[in-house]
Amino acid sequence: MHPLAKLDHQFVWHPFTQMRDWLRDEPIVISEGQGAVLRDVKGREYLDANSSIWTNLHGHQHPKINAAVRGQLNKISHSSALGFANEPASLLAGKLVGVANSKLAKVFYSDDGSTALEVAVKLAYEFTRRTRCNTVGRASARAVSPRLLALDGAYHGDTIGAVSLGHIDLFHKAYAGLLFKTDKVMSPYCYRCPFNRAKPERDDARNYRKCRWECVSRVEQKLSAQTKKGNPYAAFVFEPLMQGAAGMIPQPGGWLRQVTDIARSHGALLVADEVMTGFGRTNSKLSAAASRSSLFACQQELVQPDFLCLAKGLTGGYLPMAATLTTQKVFDAFLGGYEELKTFFHGHSYTGNQLGAAAALASLDILQSKSSVSQRVRLQKQMQDELQTLWVLPHIGDIRQVGLVAGIELVKNWRTREPFALRERAGIRVCAAMSRRGVLTRPAGNVIVLMPPYCTTKTQMQKIASALREAVAEVF
Ligand SMILES: *Cc1c(COP(=O)(O)O)cnc(C)c1O
Question: Could you give the CA distance from residue 353 to residue 263 in angstroms, rounded to a whole number?
């Protein structure tokens, strides 16, 4: 075993990993990356088919981001946002508000997707409490305890506020006693929707579904019921266009627009978690103009959120940094005399980090360049073509692509949609077989995730698809 692998086995505890399984095999130790390729300490090469857990956008060692980080290193790496402003964080905030192109006006920085959601949740909660206290008067102010609504199957991170919004039992159930109360409502999962009366076909389930938008009615009912109780939901939290960790579950066109309109009519603030979907990842329109004008999933359904949570791709996959964008109205509710204690008492040591902000600025420049836009349009089409070749496999039940993300759901029998049991570890086994073929990704349950960096070439995309095809054939 390589000495670094040995050290890892001896000392490192990995995230979301059954360590007993981990300790059975020698781990791949990554030492270098270039474009869409990762290299390990033994000199083996792999394609980074999930963009290093959804973070990387333009490939590894992008010359422009490398130069931006180096340039910043020669000035300063970090100074505190508590009491001081800094150059790249100021520039980045202006730029983010510009590309969000909505009523979002203020940027609160943090470090990860979880913390971006934590900030949104605390702000939405406190904003609602304050505005409701003002209307109901001081006496009943103490009784005001706003509730939040999130989607079934949601994953918004691992800190306690973010976990409270999560509805994946496997991750979240154990901590139920620690959490604040949120409710969940049906999310559209056309492939496994109880209201979808269509027989399985060899196509994305959204294209052949037969329903009456019962999923939208469910959201309507949930919001109405809470409003009738006299304590309407403070916020509706959602991943726009596609739920990631839930299993790459895409929303049929129009769903987001309908449910956010309903949520708004009940006075709920809209919290869009674009930690996975943002930065050009989910633009499903195959035109350069559309790709340039909307970097975020919300924009495609003309939804204007009150909070936009960004992380993963923000720095192009270089450094941990997150941003929660919000409106002037929310910001204003926290203004007051020092002694009024209206301040938002929240923040982290590395808030507004210069290296991260410099990387993010360079990444946004690349994203908006003509060449990146045409690259994304090209790759999306190639991905679509390659994914079509997978339908011949009987163990593939659904293939759902949104922009440059795809979820491929493995099933025991495509005619009945019968799923694999958890203990069969179908997704894990297929990904292991792909890894032996030089393609790295991680499953979400029985769903294989493909999310290549935007610089992935046609040949590399073909290799990813053929590795998946061979792996499925080998495992089943
Ligand atoms: C990954 C993810 C998070 C959590 O982000 P971390 O950086 O891992 O804390 C939150 N929301 C979504 C949609 C994510 O994909």
Answer: 35
Structural domain count of the chain: 2
Of 112, 315, 402, best ligand 1 pocket probe by most atoms within 8 Å of the beta carbon = 112
**Does residue 239's CB lie within 6 angstroms of at least one atom of ligand 1?**
yes
Q: Which two tokens stand for residue 201?
A: 């076909």
Rounded CA gap, 79 and 98, in Å?
25
**68 falls within a domain:** no
Measured from the CA of 311, which atom of ligand 1 is nearest?
A: 7
- Of all protein residues, whose CA lies closest to atom 15 belonging to ligand 1? 276
pLDDT tens digits, the chain, 476 residues: what are they?
Answer: 999 999 999 999 999 999 999 999 999 999 999 999 999 999 999 999 999 999 999 999 999 999 999 999 999 999 999 999 999 999 999 999 999 988 999 999 999 999 999 999 999 999 999 998 776 655 454 457 899 999 999 999 999 999 999 888 777 778 888 887 899 999 999 999 999 999 999 999 999 999 999 999 999 999 999 999 999 999 999 999 999 999 999 999 999 999 999 999 999 999 999 999 999 999 877 676 766 668 999 999 999 999 999 999 999 999 999 999 999 999 999 999 999 999 999 999 999 999 999 999 999 999 999 999 999 999 999 999 999 999 999 999 999 999 999 999 999 999 999 999 989 999 999 999 999 999 999 999 999 999 999 999 999 999 999 999 999 999 99
Query: How many CB atoms are closer than 10 A to CB 279?
Result: 25
Atom of ligand 1 minimally distant from the CA of 159 = 9
Is the CB of residue 394 less than 8 Å from the CB of residue 126? no
**Where is 471: in which H helix or E strand?**
helix 458-475
Domain assignment present for 67: no
Cα Rg, the chain, nearest whole Å:
22
Residues spanned by the domain of 441:
3-61+371-475
What's the maximum distance between 2 C-alpha atoms anywhere in the chain? 69
Q: Give distance in angstroms: CA of 283 to centre of ligand 1.
A: 19
Report whether residue 157 contacts ligand 1, using a CB cutoff of 6 Å. yes
C-alpha 116 to ligand 1 mean position (Å): 9
The CATH number assigned to the domain holding 392 equals: 3.90.1150.10
Q: How many helices (DSSP H) and strands (DSSP E) are in the chain?
A: 18, 18
Which of the listed residues 367, 392, 414 is the one where a domain comes to its end? 367
Distance 122 CA to ligand 1 centre (A): 17
CA of 405 to the centre of ligand 1 (A): 15
